[in-house]
Amino acid sequence: MSAVEVTRASWIVDGAEILAETSFSVADGTATALVGPNGSGKTTLLRMVCGRLSPSRGSVTVFGRVPDDRDAGFRADLSELLGAPGYYGDLTLGDHLDFLGRLWDVADTHAELERLGALHLSTRYIDEMSSGQRQLAFLALALTRPSRLLVLDEPEQRLDAAYRVALGEILAARRDEGAAIVIATHDDALRDRIADHVVALEEGA
C-alpha cells in the first residue's frame, strides 16, 4: 500500500481547471517533489493530500483511506505546513514547541529547531520575528510533530542559503528514517537533495 496514491485527480472551479488531471504515488521512505510555475495547482494538490479539498474528479488516498483533516487518526499520521499555522501571540516559540511535545510525547522539543540552526529563536515571540525567522519557526513546529507523512508547501521560501541546506539535510534524514514526504518547491538544490520522484505540473496541464 502506498503512503499517498493520487489517481487522475483534478480540481475545477466555475468551469476553470485549477489542477489538471494528475496521477502519482508516494511510498514510505521516499520523497516526491511537485514542481511547476505558480498557478499550476501545486498547493491545490497538497491540500487534497491533507484532506482540506476533495478532487473534482479522480481520487486521493493516504495510507489507503480518503484524507479527512477532521479525523484524529488521519491527523496523527500527518504533519504539514501549508501557509502560516495558527499560533498564540503571548507564547514564545519555545513554549509552542514544549506544548507540542506534551501533546505528541516528544522528549527533545527543541531538537529540530537546533538542527535548523535556529535555536536562538526559542525565546522569541513569533509576532516579533522577521518573515524568514517565522518560516523557521513554522518549520520547527511542523518537523517536531511525529508523522508518517510530511507535506510541505515551498518550505524554502524566505530562507537564507544556509538554512535551506539545513532543511534539506533534515528532510533527507526524515525520508531515510521511513517517512513519506510530499513537497512543492521552486528550489532546484532542495529538490535534488531529497526527491526520489518529481511531478512536473504546468498551468492547465
Automatic annotation (TrEMBL):
Alphabetic keyword roster: ATP-binding, Nucleotide-binding
Single GO term (MF): ATP binding
Domain ABC transporter: 1-205
Keyword Membrane among record annotations: no
Residues of the signal peptide: none
Pfam families from the UniProt entry: ABC_tran (PF00005)
Protein name in the entry: Multidrug ABC transporter ATP-binding protein
